Every structure is written in structure tokens, then in C-alpha cells.
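Comment thread on ticket #2218

A.B. wrote:
> Attaching the input chain for the structure job we discussed in standup.
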Amino acid sequence: QVQLIESGGGLVQAGGSLRLACAASGRTVSTYGMGWFRQAPGKEREFVAGISWSGGGRYYVDSVKGRFTISRENAKNTVYLQMNSLLSEDTAVYYCAADPTGLGNRGSRFNSWGQGTQVTVSS
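C.D. wrote:
> Ran it. Output below, let me know if you need it in another format.
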């Protein structure tokens, strides 16, 4: 079983940046696809970004393309989400998830989830 712990959330002004980190434990996730999701108040959880096990495949929801970058450091069993040019609509709880198939795309079956980290963007 993979345990995931997110960090790096906080309060930032619109236009600012944050870098989220997701540290995995319990087993290596070097063969897992990894993803970031978010859930805003009153809304369903949505896929934000994903990365394949090799890092060769990276996927983003349209609303964050050009602003967010997902990356991974397998040696540290960690995945990152660099968020730039933040908007108030990016305010949400952000969750990290692991996909054992290794694909990490929007349609993947993510079966391990972290507890989430709050990101609040003030306008």
C-alpha cells in the first residue's frame, strides 16, 4: 500500500506561485503514474495534472496549461506540482494520487490518495 503526504499549500495572492510536493512511502512509486487532483467548495474533485512513471507523459486540464507543471523525482519518491500565475479559481484542496498502471493520465485508475493540502488564492 502506498501512503501519500502532500505539502506546500498555503495562502497566496493572485499572480503568485506555489510548489506542492507529494511524498510517497510504503513502497517505491517509480513504476506508478502520479496525479494531482483538486476539489473546490461545492464542486466535484477534478483531475489537474498527471505524469507517467517515466515522466515522458504529462497531462493537464485545459485551465492550468501553461501555468502548472508536474514533475517527479523517483530517487526521492516524490512528485511536485509547480503552480504559477495563480488565479482565485485555483483555490481548492489539492490531492496527490497514485496509479499502479503507470500511465498517470486523466482516465487512469488512481487507487491511493493523500489527505490533501489547502491552496487559497486571494484576489
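A.B. wrote:
> Thanks. Noting for the ticket: The longest strand covers residues 18-25.
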